[in-house]
Amino acid sequence: MMCQLCGANIRGLGSSETTLVSIVANPVQSPPNFPEGPGKDDKLPDNNEIIGPLVIAQLLHNEKTLLAIGNELGLSGWGLNNSGYCSWLGIACGSNNSMVEKLDLSRRGLQGNVTLISELKALKWLDLSYNNFHGSSPPAFGNLSELEFLDLSSNKFGSSIPTELGRLRNLRSLNLSNNWLTGAIPNELEGLKKFNIFKFLQID
């Protein structure tokens, strides 16, 4: 589907005004059904199968990344009691209880650098809405090739929409509303073929 409004300008708005941009296609009414995480005695997720060295390396990488994210954002509950990361608040893993597929950190008053989240390559669902994140929206989120749902709304992200988001070929729902975005809607968003509805608010 062609993006009729790509290239249109976005007004730069302050915190007292309603901001751009809600882009929604097949809006997701509720999160996918992710399985519960493993028991708290599991240091790393375990699906009772033989795990190869590459998988173990990925699990260790995920845990290291999540601990770094938790430290950066002040998520004090992550990593306590030797619990497996699939059981940490806001995290859900896939059917094999190993790869992080959902990260919901909405409405927690968080601030800090969220770029490290782009290291969680299996993410399908990322919700960072209603926090205090500021600066530019991370271009590195364009590397999350499995992402289907992205909500960065109601923060203080500024500057322009990263053109890298156009690489998210599986993306179905994108919400950037109530931020301080400026510039034009990237033409690269035209490549998001899974969008059926484009809805842009307050465009010059």
UniProtKB/TrEMBL annotation:
One cellular component term from this protein's GO annotations in UniProt: membrane
Protein name (record): Leucine-rich repeat-containing N-terminal plant-type domain-containing protein
Keywords: Leucine-rich repeat, Membrane, Repeat, Signal, Transmembrane, Transmembrane helix
Domain Leucine-rich repeat-containing N-terminal plant-type, residue spans: 65-93
Keyword flag Cytoplasm: no
Organism: Nyssa sinensis
SUPFAM superfamilies found in the cross-reference section: L domain-like
InterPro entries: DNA_repair-toleration (IPR053211), Leu-rich_rpt (IPR001611), Leu-rich_rpt_typical-subtyp (IPR003591), LRR_dom_sf (IPR032675), LRR_N_plant-typ (IPR013210)
Superkingdom of the source species: Eukaryota
Cross-referenced Pfam families: LRR_1, LRR_8, LRRNT_2
An annotated GO BP: defense response
Subcellular location: Membrane
